[in-house]
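Lab notes, practical 5.
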Amino acid sequence: MKDQLDPTLNFNNTEIAFSYKSNKELIHTYRLFQFMNKPTLVKLGTYFGQLASQLPFGIADPIIRETIFKQFCGGISLLECQKVIDRLNLKKTLTILDYGVEAKEVDEEFRKTLDENLKAIEFAYSNSNVPVISTKLTGYIPIAVLEKIHAGETLNQAEQIKFERLEERFAILCKKAYEMGVSIFVDAKKVGFKSLLMIWLTNTWPFIIKKNQLFTIPIRCTFRIV
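Output from the prediction step:
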């Protein structure tokens, strides 16, 4: 019998793709996506979900964690994510860590994004099952500023400062990645931001452009626009 853990790569083979999940988990996922395919239910769910997240003392947290969170998140901490990482590794699958926060407006939140990604790099360095971390441009700078840059508009003084902080924080992130030998995937989020990211990174550091939109910079931090 052919080893199911070493098949010919086939992304259409859902039996292999979801073999790490139990029947109960698959049924839960199926029902969740059935729900998400109904726009009216999604609007209602989003509305009540936002209300629930604002309840005091985390009253609604167990409900949120057993529905949307459970499907799309590995955990609320790197240590909690380790359980999912180990489980995926049993099926010879590596993990990309992605701190899933974006669309913030306050500089304190942008600094927190950097801090969490630096922790993720250190975690990946000590974990052979995590070769890459992923980060989003929108986790470091307001979307409105990116849209303004993409449109070719002149930034005001406050917006220019925000952009310079983005550059500074990415430099810190890449330096850490180089020191730890960890790669970074940069999620440009929108098609327009991808071209902006390519121009910005090319102007910021001397690049060697490779195939599949992979960039290697002198500090050996690898970017893939996803």
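Observations recorded by the TA: The two ends are 37 Å apart (CA to CA). The longest helix spans residues 157-180.
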